[in-house]
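Researcher: Going back to the complex we discussed earlier. I've cleaned up the inputs and rechecked each line, so this should be the final set. Can you rerun the prediction on the complete assembly and write out the structure?
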Amino acid sequence: MDVIDQMRLFFEPRSVAVIGASRRTGYEHFNLLESMITYGYPGKIYPVNPNADEIFGIRAYHNINELPEMVELAIIGTPRSEVLHAMRSCIRKGIKAVIIFSQGFAEADEEGKALQKEIAEIAREAGTRILGPNTLGVTNGFYGFSSGFAQLERSKLPIAVVSQTGMILQGFTRSTIFGKGIDLGNMCDIDFVDVLEYLEDDPEVKVIFLHMEGIKRGRKFLEVARRVSKKKPLLVLKTGRSNRGREAIRSHSGSLAGEDIIYDGAFKQCGVIRLKSIDELQDMAKTFLNFSWVEVRRMAIITATGGGGIIATDACEESNLELAQLSRETLGKVEDLSPPWFSIGNPVDIWPASLVHGYPKVFGVALGAVLSDKNVDAVLCVLPSPVHKVFDVSGIIERTAAKFDGKPIVIWRAGYLYSEEQVALFEKNRKAVVYPTGERAVRALATLTEYAKIRNSKD
Amino acid sequence: MDVIDQMRLFFEPRSVAVIGASRRTGYEHFNLLESMITYGYPGKIYPVNPNADEIFGIRAYHNINELPEMVELAIIGTPRSEVLHAMRSCIRKGIKAVIIFSQGFAEADEEGKALQKEIAEIAREAGTRILGPNTLGVTNGFYGFSSGFAQLERSKLPIAVVSQTGMILQGFTRSTIFGKGIDLGNMCDIDFVDVLEYLEDDPEVKVIFLHMEGIKRGRKFLEVARRVSKKKPLLVLKTGRSNRGREAIRSHSGSLAGEDIIYDGAFKQCGVIRLKSIDELQDMAKTFLNFSWVEVRRMAIITATGGGGIIATDACEESNLELAQLSRETLGKVEDLSPPWFSIGNPVDIWPASLVHGYPKVFGVALGAVLSDKNVDAVLCVLPSPVHKVFDVSGIIERTAAKFDGKPIVIWRAGYLYSEEQVALFEKNRKAVVYPTGERAVRALATLTEYAKIRNSKD
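Model: Rerun complete. Updated structure for the full complex:
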């Protein structure tokens, strides 16, 4: 069985044994069996509990030996003292994939460290792969399998997350729910390399996020990441930048974090883009999902507020994006609508013209003009709050953008009166992406460009 | 009349003449007369329009001379060619405060520049103060006066914004609506100094935000800002950091922006805190409104996710905040609830204990313990998404915090499933403030500390 087939047992198991399955129901008990059922797992479930004949209406077995058939995956959720015994039973049964949910191993104390080592050794000898320990396991919205206890909304967003914390399986950010997620936990066996090889040609996944505390098999990671990053964007949130952060990592996933600067260099070498914050993670998810991977150098800014245009201009320079030199033709189209005393530049301030001809008309003219200007790679629109209906130009953007496919349009919806719902609706157009601020919109395009360069580089 | 009385004419006028009042109704016409009425202005309005006897049911006058009484404030919204004439009429009538809404002055062309100069000169001679030109004017939610065209929600949030863009009068951010706002526009007369003197002892205003493109009267600004910053936080978003940004400023408000590094030094000298982004502006509004002005050095982090704790740890170090050395007693309280193999540190990882005793109980114990620890100045709680009811600990936070008043509690509500409404509710407690990410929560405390130091410094 190659690594891809092995990983399939974790992401798309046809049958699962849950060892240490509890009968306690309700959110407060974090019952992974219950949440697996609720999530809509389509395969067969075999609860294993020495004291139960049935759990949640499913026949339970007193131990692994009693299972009527082979299972593809076992999940061990017992107290740590029983994990070694359970692992031995799984191996005897011939199970090839095991998630160890339990805590108290390398992240805890010396005894835990020794226990983890022993478990990893017997598994390796038997050819059984282990995910964990100290993990929430896997979430796969495409297939309907989730081993975490969280009652997750099922998502088919083509983003995969490979993480060293269970937090990420709940979605790291409030608006992004990942289609596939895996929590590597203590990485006693399965690590970033295994998962990257599985995701490399996975047609369900277009973007890969890594949350990394430490790494094993550094050389192999570089090799695989370099290959994968040519096929799809690989973004990493590497934590433990600080000294205290590195100390904390030792008692979280038991990883050795190493000097941060070494990671920086390694990521650059293999085409992995490093993100600096959770905000950026959220921004880049929608950026990569909605825009094609183009290099942006020359920005046009359309604004109804001079002040907002200047804020956006500062942001462009700070992200190494130029303001495009707009053609005479482009400038003329907006100038024709403006009062005679007003001269148009970039940022394109459409406010004086809007007072004469109405905002929607002038906005539409300006957007069409800059999109058709061959000196422009992408457009940032600083839109007023849609508190006025006249400022709701989502329809105009959709129609205009359809004629100029390929140039990213990013939106800073200024002002206080917009709700998450309004923004979500706007994004359904998939012609333009809305960001909370102009600074973040521009930074997202700079990162998109960074990836386009990685992809287009020859080496 | 001193400057405070002069500024009162702009913020709390008892009567207003609107020169160039239009009869066109509906959002698309940006009719400032209409929006003034909708906003609920309690004073007397006198529309002035040579072609109308009545507008929106209010008696209109053909020119300023016909007004039956003196007005405290005039707003000029005519085309620029008529502004000088209107200004002369106002002066003849003896009006002491004029907002020039019209555009096409120093921000536009040479003719506009000359016009602006002439208008400023005749006003100065007459002792009439001018706000603008090229301004949306003033918003005062406490009094019910707004000269902008935007249909604003009326807010009594004790934050004032002094801005060089009208954008800010609509609220720069989606969740913050300012109680008082003024758009200085081209600053041909009234500038930052005048407004700061008015706001200095204004009991309705606790925090002052400046949006600054350029400055006049630099020395006087330093003097006044130094005095005001000892009384209330003064935060500035200074734009034109970039070369292109500075060029754009010239054609926006006609200001000379000058070298950015000079502003940096000046702000430090006079206790003005410089913000770097719109996100930060939003974060600091709620921070300053909810917390007392304390210096935070030693942070405790309570987390249900080890990975989130590490992200927060990195953020603390990057914002120059220490992780507190928790007392043996504090650690013991959570250790007593944890499995024997788990040792508690800071970040305080409460997850292993939660699996045994339930999340709410352990969270409450941990929060009480760190708040009563004399080595702790503030607490960051990394809370899981409230997708599980068991994770909704807002009540616990409220009750616990009430016993330990004075130590800021900041919340990073991780995970995707929370809505703006949930966050808003949470904030009504006013015992803890929620931020979109841990990084932003920590940065907010660092800025709070920066202000506390300014306030506590002797010079």
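Model: Worth noting: The CA atoms of residues 74 and 98 of chain B lie 5 Å apart.
Researcher: Good, that matches what I expected from the previous run.
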